[in-house]
Design brief:
With 408 residues, the protein is mostly helical. It has 18 helices and no strands.
Length: 408
């Protein structure tokens, strides 16, 4: 592909794409702050309500195996449009759902959109910024699209709720925002169709499961699954926990405290990026991140004082969000060829989705059966320990290779 292209201004297009990602995330994260209202409306317990987010992970796991092939048919801009259509259906089907089963189906549809968007974003950045040396900043900004949308929803949910009178009003507002985003995507994001289709022509040849052919790749996938389990329990259940009599926060305060994790998560991602650029033994860094992630899992629901909870929210954000950058950086040591690294990178989301699927349902079931939120620390600690062991084994197998390669 030549430097001359019919694609529009790279940064203007990118800003619009990032906004679309944030709009999608606003709709995607409307459930956690609404969990209490949804449980009351659908007359369900925490265990069943846990599937409101886990259904998205199920969908993401399924769609991960075919997004490459789909992208070769409709292109990355088409994937972005498909993601927004899925989120519009998520909101529409959800607000009209006559029962909890249909509501869970609406979340499954939203999860499909999440899979489309996760594939479209990096591809569009590659298309817009043809010089690889120019992609660092846009890739770093793009990594914050979920955080941006989550922050907006958590801090605006109470206002929208009071203005509209119920959780259904929040769903209608999200639907309107997504429809506006869909129109902007169709008419304002300028991507030359011939260029995008030429770039993704071979994308369907890379299958995610092709990366699961070595012990090293399996170790990283399992670590990602363990991280996703710990992170998903907090993101799905924290607003509900903070509004229980144990903690005693009102809805606005609970959502604001929950959003602290998103802010400190961005800080953690930036910090670990600096550490990874300075330390040659990157597998050792991965071990350190899993130690901290395990600590973050254990402390999530054992404190009840509001001051202590704020500290926990800060630490959960810092200690969990350092894991994915470390995983992505260590993928290069799991395989010794560029093609092999690409396969490992393609396989990592499988671990992330599998870890997210059972997280909230298991946590909810434990709270329901024991009556204790603190008991959730047990499975979180066990899962963290599994991830830690796998990271240590990976360090033993790949640490020396990583240090030698960077020394050269």
């Amino acid at each position: 592909m030549g430097e001359k292209s019919k694609t529009g201004n790279a940064w203007l297009n990118f800003i619009l794409i990032f906004i679309m990602g944030a709009i999608f995330a606003i709709g995607f994260f409307k459930v956690p702050p609404a969990m209490g209202s949804l449980m009351e409306y659908f007359q369900c317990g925490l265990g069943e309500a846990g599937w409101f987010m886990s259904a998205c992970s199920v969908a993401g796991t399924i769609i991960a195996f075919v997004t490459g092939a789909i992208q070769t048919k409709i292109g990355p801009k088409g994937m972005l449009i498909a993601a927004l259509v899925c989120m519009a259906l998520d909101s529409l089907v959800g607000v009209l759902a006559p029962n909890v089963e249909v509501f869970i189906i609406s979340r499954f549809i939203g999860g499909l959109g999440n899979g489309f968007l996760a594939t479209a974003g990096p591809t569009l950045i590659t298309l817009l910024f043809k010089d690889p040396s120019k992609r660092g900043i846009p890739n770093s900004i793009w990594a914050c699209w979920t955080a941006a949308g989550s922050l907006i929803m958590l801090n605006s949910y109470a206002f929208i709720l009071s203005a509209t009178g119920g959780w259904q009003g929040v769903w209608w507002v999200c639907l309107a925002i997504v429809v506006i985003g869909l129109l902007l995507t169709v008419f304002c994001i300028r991507i030359d169709h011939a260029e995008e289709m030429a770039m993704v022509a071979a994308g369907g040849d890379v299958k995610p499961w092709a990366g699961l052919t070595s012990l090293n790749s399996w170790l990283l996938v399992i670590v990602f699954a363990c991280f996703a389990f710990i992170f998903s329990v907090w993101s799905a259940m924290a607003p509900t926990y903070l509004q229980t009599p144990l903690v005693g926060m009102d809805m606005a305060a609970a959502n604001s405290v929950s959003s602290i994790t998103t802010v400190t998560g961005i800080v953690g991602s930036l910090i670990i990026g600096v550490v990874l650029s300075k330390v040659k033994n990157q597998p050792l860094v991965l071990v350190g991140t899993m130690v901290l992630c395990t600590v973050a899992g254990i402390i999530q629901f054992i404190f009840t004082g509001q001051a202590a909870i704020i500290v926990v929210a800060v630490l959960v954000g810092l200690f969990t969000n350092i894991v994915p950058p470390a995983l992505f950086s260590n993928a290069q040591w799991a395989a010794k060829t560029p093609a092999g690294v690409a396969l490992v990178m393609a396989a990592l989301p499988i671990g992330s989705n599998f870890g997210g699927i059972p997280a909230a349902p298991i946590a909810g079931a434990i709270v329901e059966s024991t009556g204790s939120w603190a008991m959730v620390a047990a499975p979180l600690g066990i899962v963290g320990a599994i991830g830690l062991v796998c990271s240590i084994v990976f360090m033993v197998r790949c640490g020396k290779y990583a240090v030698e390669s960077q020394s050269k």
